[in-house]
């Protein structure tokens, strides 16, 4: 019977990055994924790297480390991640005060610059000038997340790690407080340590085994177009993004119990209208976010797509009319917008690596730090991200 040092559950961007860094440190590592090709948040990611968005000493440092990793990652992984840096345009709604938004962004590591309506339309000619009162702009990183994840996975295997396609159905337990492996559709697999990198389904997966974690999820909805000749000059997002307020409201103590069973929506849905184009010409339009407590909840795709098209058409009329396909996935988050990284309290052998609200900016740095900390390297940042910072 093979017993690995680490089994990493979930081969999206977080799991693949972590498995690579673990294997590179010399740990025997197995990466498990139930879907091939991927179907979750990694598959439908915008690919944006908001390395400018740190607002505390901790997040500024992680963002700075993250962008430096991205700049050399293609060479290290021996595969093209399609990394680039380009202009992000944060549109200010016609009824909003641009100067007030400038103040809101003043604490960011790299505060965005205010543009007039004319300047914004010069930077992004597809904008509808009557729909905005101006815009903010800042340089922004971008990758093709599926290619980056594949690159991490292949590099992990080159340094000795393994990849298996199997669904995790539960955990192998030794007594009440020790996890020694996972049960899967291909049989039990054993390890000294398990890392859960399953994004939005993490809470349900652990809860089914009696393990409670303070992680939450939204249902994110987007439209993806086929490659098109229509070209965006920038990445377009709203300056007044509602998603982070939705996450804060959905984790208040008065709604905490709702997350323990399906069928609830702790707070109303929001729609942040934006559009991102990839190098091959595809555009992802989104996004609607819903806090439905059932990760398998049914959503009215027809109505959702109509709402998305109406909202984006006001900002980018030509984009809103493009043919495309509606998609849906779940996205994990925590109560304080920092990820949950490290051992789950009171249960030996199981760790979280999930809940990233700004994943692409910080995952590469945190994966590297976490793996290094397991070799005995003291890391105060990893300690600050411990799931134990919340009461279980």
TrEMBL record:
Residues 5-371 form the FAD dependent oxidoreductase domain. Gene3D superfamilies: D-Amino Acid Oxidase, subunit A, domain 2 (3.30.9.10), FAD/NAD(P)-binding domain (3.50.50.60). The keyword Oxidoreductase applies. GO terms for cellular component: cytoplasm. Keywords: Oxidoreductase. GO terms for molecular function: oxidoreductase activity. SUPFAM superfamilies: FAD/NAD(P)-binding domain (SSF51905). This is FAD-binding oxidoreductase.
């Amino acid at each position: 019977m093979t017993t690995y040092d680490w089994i990493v559950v979930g081969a999206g961007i977080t799991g693949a990055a972590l498995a690579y860094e673990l294997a590179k440190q010399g740990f025997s590592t197995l990466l498990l994924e139930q879907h091939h090709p991927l179907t979750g948040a990694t598959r439908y990611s915008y690919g944006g790297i908001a390395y400018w968005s740190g607002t505390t000493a901790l997040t500024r440092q992680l963002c700075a480390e993250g962008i430096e990793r991205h700049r050399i990652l293609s060479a290290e992984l021996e595969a093209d991640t399609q990394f680039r840096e380009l202009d992000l345009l944060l549109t200010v709604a016609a009824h909003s005060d641009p100067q007030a938004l400038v103040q809101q962004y003043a604490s960011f590591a790299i505060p965005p610059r205010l543009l007039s309506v004319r300047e914004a339309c010069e930077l992004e000619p597809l904008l509808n000038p009557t729909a905005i009162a101006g815009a903010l702009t800042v340089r922004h990183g971008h990758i093709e997340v599926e290619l980056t994840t594949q690159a991490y996975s292949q590099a992990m295997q080159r340094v000795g790690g393994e990849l298996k396609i199997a669904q995790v159905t539960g955990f192998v337990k030794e007594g009440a407080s020790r996890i020694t492996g996972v049960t899967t559709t291909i049989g039990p697999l054993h390890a000294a340590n398990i890392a859960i990198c399953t994004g939005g389904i993490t809470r349900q997966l652990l809860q089914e085994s009696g393990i409670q974690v303070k992680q939450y999820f939204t249902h994110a909805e987007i439209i993806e177009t086929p490659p098109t000749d229509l070209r965006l000059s920038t990445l377009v997002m709203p300056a007044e993004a509602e998603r982070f307020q939705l996450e804060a409201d959905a984790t208040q103590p008065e709604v905490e119990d709702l997350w323990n069973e399906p069928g609830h929506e702790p707070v109303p849905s929001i729609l942040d209208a934006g559009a991102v184009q990839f190098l091959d010409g595809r555009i992802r339009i989104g996004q609607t976010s819903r806090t439905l407590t059932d990760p398998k909840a049914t959503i009215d795709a027809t109505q959702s797509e109509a709402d998305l098209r109406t909202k984006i058409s006001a900002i980018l009329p030509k984009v809103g009319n493009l043919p495309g396909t509606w998609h849906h996935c779940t996205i994990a988050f925590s109560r304080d917008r920092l990820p949950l990284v490290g051992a789950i309290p009171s249960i030996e052998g199981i760790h979280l690596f999930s809940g990233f609200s700004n994943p692409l900016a910080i995952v590469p740095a945190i994966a590297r730090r976490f793996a290094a900390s397991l070799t005995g390297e003291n890391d105060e940042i990893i300690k600050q991200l411990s799931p134990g910072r919340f009461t279980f």
